[in-house]
Amino acid sequence: MAIYAIGDVQGCLAPVLALLDRLGFDPARDQLWFTGDLVNRGPQSADVLRFVKGLGEGAVTVLGNHDLHLLAVAGGHAPRQRGDTVEDILSAPDRDALLRWLRRRPLLHHDATLGFLLVHAGLLPQWDLGEARAVAAEAEQVLRSDDSPMFFDQMYGDLPDYWHRSLTGWDRLRVAVNAFTRLRYCDAEGRMDLRFNGPPGTQPAGLLPWFEVPGRKSRSLGIVFGHWSTLGAGVRNGAVALDSGCVWGGSLTATRLDNASRAWISVPCDRQARPSA
């Protein structure tokens, strides 16, 4: 059995199939970990959902910001944005089944035996494994409940930008969702800046990539993440970055998690979205 982690797909099915062919993936034996953002910006969001859903236990995926945006739009809780390419899901005959499956995906997946944690964007430096798992579980419970319409109504926004254990209600959940699905930079105290998305070295003064914050409580964890296409694939302070900009004309990248040699495999992608989208 091989376990491979794959970066952000964003509705690009052809590179997924090409990559799995390169990997020699066997769905009866192997498992895929997807870093989230299965949908949006690419041309085949519905087909990607059907494919990953059809893998059953052979696939693990966490929710990304584009996945949550799709769920909000589908429920009438957010307008479509320029560049959205989710109409094939919204008008699909199996729309309800696809959305129901997506809504039940976790924000965080941890495999203690393998020694890796999967998340779309990152973890706040204040969180150790126990707190991150507890906070993710809180948000997942609401997302899967009858309160999910209110969840999507309250999800958007950049504030609060700092985690306090005393936070309650929608403020608490918004901070959690922003960290798990939108985080790139924060200051040394862990205050998030969700506006800047350039590569490290180009950020405003006082900001650090979340994985470089001194004293980060999750530094001993093997964290696998995507979301940050300008960062590119590679190991960053022990964290495994996998978004290599497939939808922007970069590549789709996988790495093997159950093998110490950790081979990196990529396939080229055609540009499907505008860089400003």
List keywords for this structure.
277 residues, 29% helix, Purple Acid Phosphatase, chain A, domain 2, alpha/beta, 5-stranded mixed sheet, single chain
Describe the model.
The protein has about 280 residues and is of the alpha/beta class. The protein has a single domain (about 5-270), classed as 4-Layer Sandwich (Purple Acid Phosphatase, chain A, domain 2), CATH 3.60.21. The chain is built from 8 helices and 13 strands. The strands form 3 sheets. It has a 5-stranded mixed β-sheet, covered by helices on one side. Helix 2 (about 45-55) packs across helix 5 (about 95-105) and helix 6 (about 130-145) crosses helix 8. The radius of gyration is 17 Å and the shape is globular.
List low-pLDDT spans. Answer: none
Main sheet attributes: strand count, strand direction, barrel closure: 5 strands, mixed
CATH class category: Alpha Beta
Rg, Å, rounded: 17 Å
Choose one word for the global shape.
Answer: globular
Compact overview of the structure:
The protein is an alpha/beta fold and 277 residues long. It has helices at 13-23, 45-54, 65-74, 87-90, 95-103, 129-143, 148-155, 169-182; strands spanning 3-6, 31-34, 59-61, 108-111, 116-119, 185-186, 192-193, 208-209, 222-225, 234-236, 239-241, 251-256, 264-268.
